[in-house]
Fold this protein.
Amino acid sequence: MKAGNKCGNPFRYGCVVEGGFYCPRPRLEKQLSGFIEAGQNVVIHGERRMGKTSLINAVVHGMRGWRMLYVDMLHVMTVGDICRRIVSAVRNMEGKASLFEKALRLLPRLRPVMKVDPATGEVGFGLDARAAEDPYAVEEVLDMLAKVAAKGRTVIVFDEFQDVANVAEAQTVLALMRGRIQFQGDIPYVFTGSVRSRMIDLFDNPDSAFYKSALTLCVGEIDHDAFSSFLRRRFEIGNRRISEETVEAIMSTVADVPGDAQQLCEAVWGVTTESVEPEDVDAALQVVFMREGDKFESFCERLSPVQFKLLLAIARNGGREIQSRRFLDEADIGNAAAARKAAMRLCELRHIYFFRGEYRFASMFFRAWLLRRGY
Ligand SMILES: Nc1ncnc2c1ncn2[C@@H]1O[C@H](COP(=O)(O)OP(=O)(O)OP(=O)(O)O)[C@@H](O)[C@H]1O
Ligand SMILES: [Mg+2]
């Protein structure tokens, strides 16, 4: 048997990481736990796969006597979705069916019914569909949440919070939520989301109900040295040798984005046996391209010629000053307005985002794939 195959793949991506799969981030952890201890509401900004959810999870689990009520708002479309997500989170946190039943009694307007699957014993629930579509239903649900949270030290996490702004009557819903949350002073709320620009709109725009309602924490690229050592140790756990230089090559391919680094390492692991050489990083990148190439291909097919040219130019030259004459000439784009419009669309499609004066790729793999195709 090959030495490296003694244990499973020590890398994980695309999910919340915990335990040995999680690399500690002491500075951010300390800041976040300090805010929570002080009962402060916090908004966590950061791009995709930077480790926002894993950080919150690690912090709350590391805080003695605290528990987390985690509400995933991803793709909520209606007020009813928001209500159901919150009630589901309460069900997930309250281990006993009797406690959950008690919580449901706090929602008289929503006429909840509790359902227990006789085969699995799993507890479900239903809410009155019409009542749950009334924006004011959110108030009742948040009041219930506050009562449940007050029973112990509880952090309430609203993840992918930007999607709340997608519901019809979003302004009313957000104003009602803000109104309720601001009177729940001692319960720390953590708001996070993976579309930085939309989260900034919600928390830093004076027209938004949530304007300045929470302290800000930014989760960016992970500490380079700490994460490089972490990745090295993960290889060594499986008896696989890797040099510092090879880890550097991995980190630079993914620009220190932890999710992409773990994805690339997972592929590196798959193409190696006992030791990892620099050329294995390239072989692993090919594996990632094989898995994701069709997706990248279809992304490109759906772009207009200007959008595609702009994307390619950003891949080649970086995303600074895209309206300058030099950039436009290199990109072969006629005028600044066309470049600006194309950039807006690429941001909407989440292929790129704007941060610290430049457009950046949301996925370093997409960037590398474009460059490799040699268009
Ligand atoms: N502290 C960490 N240690 C090790 N790996 C990490 C860490 N944080 C993130 N990752 C890697 O990034 C991936 C995504 O992490 P997570 O889901 O926490 O990020 P996120 O910022 O919440 O992403 P999204 O915006 O897509 O929800 C994980 O599956 C893991 O591969
Ligand atoms: Mg997340």
Q: What stands out?
A: The CA atoms of residues 73 and 160 lie 5 Å apart. The radius of gyration is 23 Å. The chain has three domains: 24-218, 224-292, 303-373.
